[in-house]
Predict the 3D structure of the following.
Amino acid sequence: MNYGQWRSQEDFEAILKKPDFEIESGYWLGLAENEFHVYEVVYTQPTD
């Protein structure tokens, strides 16, 4: 499992366009088959 956090969906998509981070080659090659999931991080606070 790997965790990464970006400021926006656009920032995440931009890194995948860089030659070293293309899904089919570069950084990922031989490490794992990637399955990306995007989640929104939110903060909640109980009302005690």
